[in-house]
Amino acid sequence: MLEEFNKHLVVKVEALEEEVFRLRRMLFGKKSEKLEPKEEQGEIAFEEEEQEATSPPMEPTPSHPADSKPADTQKKQRQIKATVVREVEHLIIPEEVQANPQAYTRLPESSDRISRRLEYVPDHFELHIFRMPAYVKKGQRGKSGQDAPIHATAPQNILAGSNMGASVIALALHNKYSLHLPLYRQIKEFDRIGLHGLSEGVLCNWVRAVAGELEPLWRAHHELLLDSDALHIDETPIRCLKSDKTNGYMWAMSSADTGASLYYWQNSRSADALNYLLRHGQQPDGNVYEGAILSDGYGGYESWMKNLPDGQKPQWQVCWAHVRRKFVEASANSNDPGWSMKMVELIQPLYTIERVLRESKAPPEQKLKERMEKSRPIVEEFFKELAKRSLDTQNPPRNKLKDAIDYAQKRQTQLCSWLENACIPIDNNQVERAIRPVTVGRKNSLFIGSPEAGQRAAIIYTMVEECKRTGTDFLQWLTEVLRRLPTHRASEGYLALMPGILKLSTENPQHRKVSL
Asked: What is the DSSP letter of 150?
């Protein structure tokens, strides 16, 4: 009788426990009916540092000290899981042991040091394990009476303490700045190929670290550009969140000699930006650039040069393409479209002459001769027509045609500099082409998170553009550079690491085929 009553109580207790569990789940548990994902075979977990900002984290970087503001951020660890296709083990032996193996004894494997590094091979990941055995010199004892072991050191990483290899970090920057893929979309793509748990904070941390390491290359590249005979300059606005102003500006500078380009972020479009772009060392008191500059007719260039001492002012050429463009616009919006098109047709032979000189690779002496004999009469005729038209009382005081005439007449001196200097091109189209990748990135990412992020983007865009110019694969180059930079010495210089100068392996390890 008691046994049956006991069994009844056990069943009742189990039912009550189940009811309590259900009620607790209703109050405090998850409402989702999704099953917990099973851990895949070959899945490895890593701890990765991420930077959490109080405002939306965008792509970050140190700008000039005058523009930088301390970021209100806090660090935390984030668990990331990677589906690994295969593991590759590397045995690293100390140099002393390699030189004289008979003099050393290897300790048990429990004394080995191990470092892990996740590397990317197209569409999958590999885990590289660096095993560093411990050795002791025969007969040598430490202070404690025990053998004093020696180890080799693992290859240094661009991110101290991180398990992410250079190829994984390079892939994120390639997607962002070469393919213009926003960070939140990259997280989905990484998840697809087997790297789970990333966040924008983690990716921002990667960008911050890489841009900081590439900055010496960027500065060396800037000094190299200032040796050019002529420089194209332009800027484009980009919305900036954590800034005193709504928009910041990405400035672009391109060498008329080589086509090499450089980007620079400033919070404003003021002439102060030129004190960093066009001075050696990027300092307000640095030596001024001594060549010629090509730009649009923005008055900031004129106001900057007015403050320079006589003899230090660069020669300034205003872009003829901007003049032509204004008359094209006037032909569709003025009261005399025929006369506007006449001015456009008068400018056209100037471009024909320049194209012939460029295709024939004419020497400077021939360029000057052709410009003086053929181009100068056309330019003089052009400004004579403008002078006649500006006196015409039938021309309304405000319209597109009036604006086009005033724009050209006010800049007549600067529009004629190229006639006397063979190094100066006729227009600024080269830098406008160079600035297009920035505008594509602006459309996809919408804004820059902070002025520091703007300069980071400028540094990386510079390297992307140099890879395009030199025909270098950006992903392969960046992977190689990130592996070299932690041990690169400043005394060796940084230009040797630039795209087109650094010799990359013809057999790219990122593109090797693996049989599984």
From this structure: B
Do 125 and 193 meet the contact criterion of CB atoms below 8 Å apart?
yes
Distance CA 254, CA 233 (A): 7
Instruction: Measure the CA angle with vertex 440, ends 438 and 444; round to 5°.
Output: 115
Res 469: pLDDT: 93
Angle separating helix axes 200-225 and 166-173, nearest 10 degrees: 80
Cα separation, 458 vs 187, in Å, equals: 23
Q: Which residues of the chain have pLDDT under 50?
A: 33, 35-41, 53-73, 142, 507-516
Whether 401 and 334 have beta carbons less than 8 Å apart is answered as yes
Closest C-alpha among 470, 476, 477, 458 to residue 500: 470
For 173, the token pair is: 């920057």
Task: List the one residue out of 184, 182, 186 whose CA is nearest residue 171.
Answer: 186
247-255/230-239 β-pairing: antiparallel
Rounded CA separation 53/43 (Å): 29
How far is the first Cα of the chain from the last one, in angstroms, to the nearest whole number? 67
Spatial distance between the Cα atoms of 126 and 79, rounded to a whole number of angstroms: 18
Q: Rg for the chain (alpha carbons), in Å?
A: 32
What is the per-residue pLDDT for 75?
63
Would you state the structure tokens that stand for residue 330, as one six-digit string?
């006037």
**Of 473, 475, 395, whose CA–CA distance to 176 is shortest?**
475
185-239: pLDDT as tens digits = 999 999 998 999 899 889 999 999 999 999 999 999 999 999 999 999 998 888 8
The reported pTM is 0.80
Q: Cα(251)–Cα(265) distance, rounded to whole angstroms? A: 6
Q: Cβ distance 194 to 82 under 8 Å?
A: yes
Q: Containing H/E element for 167?
A: helix 166-173
Give the pLDDT confidence score for residue 302 in this predicted structure: 85
Q: SS3 breakdown of the chain: % helix, strand, coil, rounded to 5? A: 50, 20, 35
Are the C-beta atoms of residues 415 and 323 closer than 8 Å to each other?
A: yes
Closest by CA position to 197, among listed 39, 37, 48, 30 = 48
How many Å apart are CA 360 and CA 354, to the nearest integer?
10
The per-residue pLDDT for 55 is 38
351-354 long-range CB contacts below 8 Å, 24 or more apart?
351/320, 351/426, 354/425, 354/426
Three-state DSSP class for 149? Answer: coil
